[in-house]
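[job 4417] fold queue: 2 targets
>>> target A
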Amino acid sequence: MADIYEMRAAVAKALAHPIRLQIIELLLDKTELCVCEIVKDIGESQSTISKHLRILKSAGLVDNRKDGLMVFYRLRVPCILKFFECLDRVLINDIEAKKAEFSIREDD
């Protein structure tokens, strides 16, 4: 059996790209999306989106189904929203702290 830390690292690596994070955010709000809809919403080429979807699928974050020529993707881990909310709170606090620090330096 694969080591849990290796599995976590694979998921973290799959998340480590802005386009893949955008794809996950799109899928959070939908039951499933066709690749063509993801391409349209993100504004990248189909080949780029398909490459990122393969990485997300390989990490177990998304799943897909085919309907004729169309491929639909869905998020397998909707609980990731809680992770993003937690991370966003930390990042926003860091940004606010840096702004406050910058403001204090400006006043000196």
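>>> target B
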Amino acid sequence: MKRFMLLHFGFEPPTPEIMEAWRKWFESIADKTIEHGGFHGQRKEISSDGSVDLPMDINAITGYSIIEVNDIEEAEEIANANPYISSIRVYEVVTQ
């Protein structure tokens, strides 16, 4: 089994329908889930030019899910079923 991180992009004010869709998605992958988390509150980007506050908007990273599945194709299938706002990025997690 391999681990993949799904980064959730995009924010819009949640409606009851969106919240229900997310709840159903989390339930549907519970047996494959290692961890979920969300990004709320303060956000900053740090670079050699300094730091800037990041807005919570359609381009924001709003959360992540770490799942354990056989391959990237299975991770992509899970990501495609997600009720994402803007997009999801899928990365294989390699630990040492």
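[job 4417] complete. Note on B: The first strand starts at residue 2 and ends at 9.
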